[in-house]
């Protein structure tokens, strides 16, 4: 298993991975109808567009992409970044793949230049991110209008 930068030719496989994970893992915490709305924004063209303004990584096992994650600037800021699109195929969850993706993102230049890193976290992933030191933004432990928790971590540069 290794982690490498996303290539546009990965878009179909990454889209399928995200959609499968949403439909299996996230529907435990969200209504299926809401997840189908999210699926519409995870098509290959959406993935390529996101990879254009983030550093997007994929976890590969043999020739199969089994996970992904991205980091980019928080609303264009130089000293704040956000983590995005962190997914691991359900059959690979709990095996350390997500940890490797987070560790990779936290070595990226967007992370290293940031004083603050934010994650729009699903209900499903919230406890996972807390293991890495992320906590509720402004102490607000409720999902927002986008149905996510806003988590953040501060670094000393």
Structural description of this entry:
By secondary structure, the chain is α+β, with helices and mostly antiparallel strands. It is 31% helix and 28% strand. The protein contains 6 helices and 7 strands, in the order βαααβββααβαββ. Strands 1-2-3-4-5-7-6 form a 7-stranded mixed beta sheet, with helices on both faces. A hairpin with a 6-residue loop joins strand 3 and strand 4. It is globular and about 40 Å long.
Q: Which geometry do the CA atoms define?
A: globular
Order of strands in the sheet with most strands: 1-2-3-4-5-7-6
The helicity comes to 25-40%
Query: Sheet bearing the most strands, described?
Result: 7 strands, mixed
Quaternary state of this entry equals single chain
Radius of gyration: 15 Å
**What is the strand tally?**
7
Q: What is the H/E order?
A: EHHHEEEHHEHEE
Report the average pLDDT across residues.
97
Which band does the percent of strand residues land in? 25-35%
Q: Name the poorly predicted regions.
A: none
User: Number of DSSP helices?
Assistant: 6
Instruction: Classify the secondary structure makeup into a structural class.
Output: alpha+beta
Q: What is the straight-line distance between the termini?
A: 31 Å
């Amino acid at each position: 298993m290794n982690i490498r930068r996303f290539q546009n030719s990965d878009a179909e496989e990454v889209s399928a991975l995200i959609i499968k994970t949403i439909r299996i893992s996230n529907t435990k915490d969200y209504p299926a109808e809401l997840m189908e709305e999210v699926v519409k924004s995870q098509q290959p063209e959406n993935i390529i567009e996101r990879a254009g303004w983030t550093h997007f990584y994929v976890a590969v096992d043999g020739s199969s992409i089994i996970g992904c994650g991205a980091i980019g600037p928080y609303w264009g800021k130089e000293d704040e970044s956000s983590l995005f699109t962190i997914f691991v195929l359900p059959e690979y969850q709990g095996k350390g793949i997500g940890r490797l993706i987070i560790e990779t993102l936290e070595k990226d230049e967007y992370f290293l230049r940031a004083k603050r890193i934010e994650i729009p976290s699903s209900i499903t992933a919230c406890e996972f991110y807390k293991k890495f030191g992320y906590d509720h933004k402004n102490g607000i432990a409720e999902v927002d209008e986008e149905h996510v928790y806003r988590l953040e971590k501060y670094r000393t540069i």
